[in-house]
What we know:
This protein is an alpha+beta fold. The chain has helices at 24-28, 35-43, 47-62, 113-116, 134-148, 158-161; strands at 3-10, 13-19, 70-72, 78-80, 84-90, 93-99, 103-109, 162-164, 173-180, 183-193, 197-203.
Amino acid sequence: MPVIEDIQLSSTTRIIVWEIKETIDFLNSGLDLSNFSKNTLRKKKSEIHQKQFLAVRNILKLLLIQDSDLSYGADGNPLIKSGCVSISHSKEFVAVLVSDQKVGVDIESNSDKCFQIMQKFIGVENEFPIKIDRKIAQILWNMKESLYKIIDFKEIDFKENLIVIPFSLNEKQTKIWFVKNEFTQDYITNYFINKNYSLAYIIDKQ
Length: 206
């Protein structure tokens, strides 16, 4: 079972990261998928998307959450009956974060993608005292995507509305601000990057 991270952040908050190495048939075996999930799986054309879908359900099974307990809101955010959940996947990596508080998680397989498009989501962070390289750009995306999954506002501009204060890769934690019109709110974001992927998560304790 390719669980590569299983972190109990508190008695009610847990994050699991799965590296997909299995076949679709193996991932599907042992799952009790709802009819809705079976139909959704059949509609997915890409093999990696099918595997990501099934890996999420395998993680939920580890968390003792039935597939039928997972649904999606009108905004596309995942919902579970027993609390709060956030889901993220990138290539062969899948992350699921569950809690009794609102949470957001984002995982990214290491690549140059975020660095190449950073002008689309990085604003004042360009004034950081450190150079924004591939790793920093990817972590910034992780942080902003995690926060985006928590906030209820519509029409969020990642560059203008989500602002990260200066940080280093060694600190593992920093603050990120949501600023829109007259509203401002700060959040603590935790993050890390290794040789294969980066990840950030936020627990909304407001």
